[in-house]
Structure prediction request, 598 residues.
Amino acid sequence: MESYLQKVLRYKVPQESPLPACKKSLDEEETKYSLKTESITFNESVINDFHDSLTDSISEGTESNFIQKVPVLSCAPNRHNRSDMTQAFFTAVKQNSYEACKTMLEKFTNGEPLIDINYILADNEAALHIAAREGFLKVCEAIMDYADSPQINIRNENMQTPLHLSCENGHLKIAQLLARSGADLNSIDKNGNTPLHLASRAGHGIIVSWLLSRGPNILIKNNIGKTAEEVSDEIISTLYHKYLKRTITLPGPSISECLKSEAKRVRINDLVEEKSKGQISYEDFIGISQLGKGSFGEVYLVSKQDSGLLYAMKVLRKEKVIAQNLIRYALTERNVLSYIRHPFIVSLNFAFQTSDKLFLVLDYCPGGDLASHLLLEKKFTEQRAKIYLCEILLALEELHRRDIIFRDLKPDNIVLDKEGHALLTDFGLSKEGVYDNSAAKSFCGSVAYLAPEMINRNGHGKAVDWYLLGVLFYEMVIGVPPYFSSNKDELINNIQRGKLKIPASLSVEAKELIKDLLQRDPCRRLGAMKDAQEIKQHVFFKGVNWDMVYRRELKPPIPIIQPVPNTRISSDRLYGDAMSNESTRIKGWTFIADDLII
Ligand SMILES: Nc1ncnc2c1ncn2[C@@H]1O[C@H](COP(=O)(O)OP(=O)(O)OP(=O)(O)O)[C@@H](O)[C@H]1O
Prediction:
């Protein structure tokens, strides 16, 4: 028989949930776009909607004259609409209009993004070049967060990448964002200059120091035979001396070796382009066992044929994803995971597809998910819960910094790596709008993990994640989620207006934190004003060294790792119809992480 706790953890909103119908479903939104097989054709209402959405978005910003400068979009039939959109997008980028950029980047029809993010404008630049050169951080973030497969190392006519331009023009935060997203620190432009050359020559000391801390190849010489240090003035030169003093000097490779390896690297980059066009496939992985099950498919333990390395492979059934109009959410998961590298967020290594399934190959976390640990152990000590809480708080902080709301925080979506550190997994289908889709209710997580504003449909922002962090903390230290009732209606009612019961045995600080995070009014909730910063300063976290947390220096209990079973999952079960079928192909899905291409 199912235990009390199992019930709590597995209590999903059933299809016939009495929650009121949403204002506008995803179905409505997406079917307004009529996509013909080759050319994109819009009807007048789409153009008006698009125009309206721009007006809406700019009304909040400061760019009040933006709309006059956006090219007027003509009506169907018109083969040029996608390029009109792209032109409009370039205008928004030049206007530094984050909202307008985000709005346009979010437009998809049948899995096709409307904006071609890697389009090179007549003056030989992509949008990311412009934003990186001009220092438009939010626009860069919009591109990284919402665009479909932006090429981070895209070249302009001078063979410069966006990182070259941000470094040359002194935009540290953009350079950091690009580096985190996989920008190549050692790429060379037409004149043989690396980003370090350009920052050094322009005298941007802070950028030079930061680049040096990332360990670039400082021996690369440009076309006139100078290293980055040699193009620096005296002040910048002292930064190199400091760096070299701190770095243990090993007998380094000769310069010609460096150049040889640079040439090899450039060839490898070509290979990346080649491979990312689709050379990773189901034939590369062997299924070992099932790790878990989600709403759209299963998660399997797999091994990569050539390296023998283990991964967790998440399988999404296209049929289900397409039927519920969720392609763009699946793409969001793939996109978010493809560029985020964070100690407490599961990394994506590969993505590929067969004709009926989508596959995400993630780092394997062998310690199991927190839901299973809670089932076995009932609850954790405050000290242990605090470690997980600190780590997940940093993961959420990173997502919020990128304007991503996780929304689906629950013990099932937190997995432990072999050292016992907690990582967020499952970015799919928990994005904006999904909860409003009546067809999507069944996968919206356990009812106990719904914030009051989600139930009331008042609209929700980042504060929703802080409420759910409170629910998680409560469950970790008390053993059941707050307001629990085995009756679904009562549970919903309790979340909205029940009295919060906290056992006296908890520390005063823990009780305070729970109350502050479970504040029903999102505006008064801890984190509402200064997001993660505010939570980190709560008395419960007094004495926590957040840099140590980030460096994974806290010591959670080491999980008992089960040996890899000696089993095989048949490829029929894993891959379904492996034949490639262009009609069901989802563009922009295939992915290979940069650090995995050799
Ligand atoms: N990287 C991983 N390593 C080990 N196990 C994992 C990993 N990712 C997921 N799992 C296991 O698979 C289960 C389901 O994963 P996940 O939540 O991503 O699926 P899902 O289809 O998105 O679920 P849902 O949308 O219903 O929440 C997790 O609860 C966990 O047990």
Observations:
- The two ends are 51 Å apart (CA to CA).
- The domain at 278-366+564-596 is CATH 3.30.200.20 (Phosphorylase Kinase; domain 1).
- The chain has 25 helices and twelve strands.
- The pocket of adenosine-5'-triphosphate is lined by residues 291-292, 294-296, 299, 312, 314, 346, 362-365, 369, 412-413, 415, 425-426, 428-429, 443 (CB under 6 Å).
